[in-house]
Amino acid sequence: MIPKKSLGQNFLINEEIAENIADSADLSGRDNVLEIGPGKGILTKYLAQKAENVLALEIDFNLAKKLDGENYKNTKIIKGDILKINLPKLIEENHFKNYKVVANLPYYITSKIIRLFLETKYPPSEMILMVQKEVGERIIALDRKESILSISVKFYADPEILFFVSRKNFDPAPEVDSAVIKITRKKKIPDIYPVKSRGAGSRQSGTFNRVKFFSLVRAGFSSKRKTLANNLSASFSIPKVELSKELKKTNLEPGVRAERLEVEDWVRLYNIFNSW
Ligand code: SAM
Prior knowledge:
Layout: E1 11-12, H1 15-24, E2 32-36, H2 42-50, E3 53-58, H3 61-68, E4 75-79, H4 87-93, E5 99-104, H5 110-119, E6 126-132, H6 133-140, H7 148-156, E7 157-165, E8 170-171, E9 178-185, H8 206-220, H9 228-236, H10 240-249, H11 263-273
Parallel strand pairs: 2-3, 2-5, 3-4, 5-6
Antiparallel strand pairs: 1-8, 6-9, 7-9
Helix pairs in contact: 1-2, 5-7, 9-10
Bound molecules: S-adenosylmethionine.
S-adenosylmethionine (SAM) binds next to strand 1, helix 2 and strand 3.
């Protein structure tokens, strides 16, 4: 079977790494695991040994069929596209509300998959993911430069890099090295109800406010070269002097760039914006 490059089919060929990934999920034998893209099943085998139940969703019909023939007692192979499937329904039907995601991700849709699981109705308690090394570093903001991606993850969860994996451990070898990261869901995600609607009866939905929150974050990052004040002033047509005054209230310097702000800074800024 020729690997399909367009589906990100770089198969892991190192058993020790596959087992390390499964071990990183700290499976107790009572945990449910959702695997995305089981491929030829190198990781699925260890997940099936360590978890109570495994759901493995594979887009490639031939791979899914072959894997189904392995007949693991506690593993259900589903043929489907993770970006098109009705995820809440899949989780409900399989009584999977407490679960972890473990996957060697198809790199062409890494950010979309991470976002999907952070925002879904039934989010996993943690995700152990193999991603492109640079993407892993960007999510953590290893260089202390935050991005829309890192803020999107850190709003919901605490990410960390567990270990790096050389490209030599895949067939075919990709052009990049990889990192295994752990994304642990926060017990409490930040409160971002607009100040004005905090009164009884006027609360807007969390989803509505999160959409607004992330449009503020995107506006802050709109031009890499510009300061936060310049970007926000241009995006929302607010005079720069006004904006600089408001930024001071949040203890942010007027010349600060968006990459320096952490989630807490964005939340403070959002709340100020909504009190105008
Ligand atoms: N888990 C295997 C391993 O570690 O060797 C395969 C990993 S490979 C990097 C990514 C896998 O994701 C492939 O098997 C590919 O067919 C599958 N895949 C790609 N796009 C997908 C999608 N949209 N939904 C589900 N699976 C997908």
